[in-house]
Specification:
The complex is a heterodimer of chains A (about 130) and B (about 475).
Chain A (H helix, E strand, L loop, with lengths): L13 E2 L4 E6 L2 E6 L1 H7 L2 E5 L6 E2 L4 E7 L3 E5 L4 E6 L2 H4 L3 H4 L8 E5 L11 H9 L1
Antiparallel strand pairs in A: 1-2, 2-3, 3-9, 4-6, 5-8, 6-7, 8-9
Chain B lengths: L16 H4 L35 H14 L20 H7 L2 H4 L11 H18 L3 E3 L5 H18 L6 E5 L6 H7 L3 E5 L9 H7 L4 E7 L11 H10 L3 E5 L19 E3 L20 E3 L11 E5 L2 E5 L16 H37 L15 E3 L11 H10 L6 E2 L9 E3 L7 H20 L1 H5 L12 H6 L6
Parallel strand pairs in B: 2-3, 2-4, 4-5, 5-6
Antiparallel strand pairs in B: 1-7, 6-7, 8-9, 10-12, 11-12
The chains are: A alpha+beta (about 130), B alpha/beta (about 475).
Chain lengths: ~130, ~475
């Protein structure tokens, strides 16, 4: 597993305490698992995602990620309606390990209230939570 | 020859039965028909199933060889923590195979089943006495089913009291099935953390216990192998708010005849005949998870219940507050016979001695290995002890690598990565049935593996080497499972 200092934590996404990331573009928020989460989970073998059109409130469980070590629930960082899911993950769950911020994104959501993003951690604040 | 038992010798290859099949080969000769041959109507005729054609010896060798690829408690020490893989004495099998039991039929009726009913009644009495409760049901099919039964009784109790509750408290050292059982009853799990010494603190319970909370589920001894010594105080806190205490007795093997859960505030307890009472489990057979209750919950026990009147026994379903029926017929009777045989063979003192030895053996393993493997909770343990791979991390060796390597030394691996409260747990439960010599061999095997972790880590990463099937590619198996032969 990686040392904390080796983690890839980009500046242009927001982070949750439960290790998801969120990034807004053209009013749509893309959500994924961050580098720490994918590294801790190890090789991911299955990703369970919601359906397009499902709605969630911030903090709701919206799916799960299964690795050879464990099954982990994933939590939605912002309230809204799912507008797209990453269908590539069905055949290639390893994308979450290989490219967690690009090809391994999980869902895209139409947020109810964009300002909820302001409550999430930026890189520095998230990094501090990891250091404990 | 290697002197370590169970680590050298032939491993027979064995093809599929269909590969051994030869046209016309057969293991039976049917007598000539004594009725006239009648042809089936054409539309009833289809292709025959493709069954292999084999001699008796073909079949015997096939399954004997396959069984030798397996590892069971009859072939070596099986220190699978939380599972109590003690030896299953063969007399249990002899008793279960007696014609009167093996040929019993649930439709035979009470008058023809008095022996079976008497056995079940007596077994209930013994289990009640051993645990300090008033009544027992033998119906649940296994531990998790017993848990569900217990929680359904708690649910029925609150309904009867006129106000259903919404939550249940579950500590992080409880068994993993506990939240599932609670959820099936519609309760939300409120998780609380154990204290720094691995046991539950009354203050943590008091902080969350309220009148919306149905009760608490406590595994005692807990999954760290530690005794919940505050159980009485915790039970008082829960009772004072009208809640009930569910005891998960899967770890009863540590406390038989020493602690009576019914006398220290537990309202309902399940235990596993297939663990504590030496009936086969794992791949070995069905389980049985009886549930014991005190007076508070007795009216809610599942039906039918076995009632003794004078010298005869009958099944009674007429209890107005019962939670209902849980299982077809009366549960797994064959398992009950084995447990009954075990209890009678051991006697009360024998059971208590078994628990004492189980605890002694676990503490011996814990003390012998604590410099070799990291021991996150260094307290006197009950029937099992939990290490992890902290000391091996610098060599990039994991708990999984060491567990796999143990197979090469002739031991079944311990439970790994459970309980979750210890990162990368390596959980050893030797049970009382292993001799000191066998336990010493296990200890020296773990020490040898820890040495290999330093000197030859690559060997561990590819282990096991001597088994019929070596390290599996778990990632490929999960990502691209091959579900058909």
């Amino acid at each position: 597993m990686k040392e904390i200092s080796d983690l890839n934590l980009p500046d242009d996404v927001k982070y949750t305490e439960s290790h998801e990331w969120a990034k807004i573009f053209d009013g749509i928020v893309t959500i994924g698992l961050n580098d720490y989460a994918q590294d801790q989970l190890g090789e991911i073998v299955f990703v369970e995602l919601p359906e397009k059109g499902d709605t969630f409130s911030k903090g709701d469980e919206f799916g799960s990620v299964e690795s050879v070590k464990a099954v982990s629930e994933i939590y939605i960082p912002i309230s809204g309606e799912i507008v797209e899911i990453n269908e590539d993950l069905e055949d290639a769950p390893e994308l979450v390990n290989e490219s967690c911020y690009e090809n391994g994104w999980l869902v895209k959501i139409q947020p109810d209230d964009v300002s909820q993003l302001d409550d999430l951690f930026d890189k520095t604040a998230y990094f501090d939570t990891l250091k404990g | 020859m290697n002197k370590q038992p169970g680590t050298s010798g032939l491993i027979f290859n064995e093809p599929l039965l269909w590969d051994k099949s030869r046209e016309g080969r057969c293991a039976v000769s049917l007598p000539k028909p004594d009725v006239e041959r009648a042809d089936l109507e054409k539309d009833l005729i289809g292709d025959a199933p493709e069954l292999p054609q084999l001699s008796e010896l073909d079949v015997v060798r096939h399954y004997t060889r396959l069984s030798q690829w397996n590892f069971g408690v009859d072939s070596g020490m099986y220190p699978l923590g939380s599972c109590t893989m003690k030896y299953n004495p063969k007399t249990n099998e002899v008793q279960a195979a007696r014609q009167g039991f093996a040929g019993a039929h649930p439709f035979a009726g009470e008058e023809f089943s008095q022996g079976a009913l008497k056995l079940m009644y007596n077994l209930e009495q013994y289990l009640a006495k051993l645990t300090g409760f008033d009544a027992v049901t033998l119906q649940p099919a296994a531990g998790a089913h017993g848990e569900l039964a217990g929680m359904l009784m708690i649910h029925a109790y609150h309904a009867k009291m006129g106000k259903q509750r919404s939550k249940i408290i579950i500590p992080d050292t409880a068994h993993g099935t506990n939240p599932a059982s609670a959820s099936l009853c519609g309760y939300d799990s409120i998780n609380i953390k154990s204290g720094d010494n691995g046991i539950l603190e009354p203050l943590a319970v008091a902080a969350v216990m309220d009148e919306e909370t149905a009760g608490i589920m406590v595994t005692n001894p807990n999954t760290l192998g530690l005794f919940e010594s505050n159980i009485k105080e915790i039970a008082d806190i829960v009772h004072s708010k009208g809640g009930l205490v569910y005891g998960d007795g899967a770890n009863m093997n540590a406390i038989m005849g020493i602690v009576k859960p019914g006398e220290i505030g537990v309202d309902v307890l399940h235990f596993n005949l297939h663990k504590t009472f030496s009936t086969p489990h794992g791949g070995g057979g069905p389980g049985s998870g009886p549930v014991a209750v005190g007076k508070t919950l007795e009216p809610f026990l599942p039906v039918p219940r076995i009632v003794k009147e004078l010298d005869s026994y009958k099944l009674v379903t007429d209890f107005s507050d019962t939670m209902g029926r849980l299982h077809t017929f009366y549960g797994h009777f064959g398992v009950m016979i084995r447990a009954y045989a075990y209890i009678l063979s051991m006697g009360g003192k024998g059971l208590t001695d078994a628990s004492k030895l189980a605890v002694l053996n676990a503490n011996y393993v814990k003390e012998s290995l604590k410099g070799t493997l990291n021991l996150p909770y260094d307290y006197p343990c009950m029937h099992e002890c939990v290490f992890n791979d902290e000391f091996q991390k610098e060599y990039h060796i994991t708990t999984m690598d060491m567990a796999k390597r143990l197979l090469d030394y002739g031991f079944h691996p311990p439970t790994v990565y459970f309980p979750l409260v210890v990162d990368s747990a390596f959980m050893v439960e030797p049970t009382e049935t292993e001799s000191k010599e066998d336990i010493d061999q296990f200890i020296s095997a773990v020490k040898a593996i820890a040495k290999e972790a330093q000197e030859n880590p690559e060997k561990l990463k590819k282990a096991p080497h001597k088994t019929k099937v070596t390290r599996l590619d778990e990632v490929a198996a999960a990502r691209k499972p091959c579900l058909r032969g």
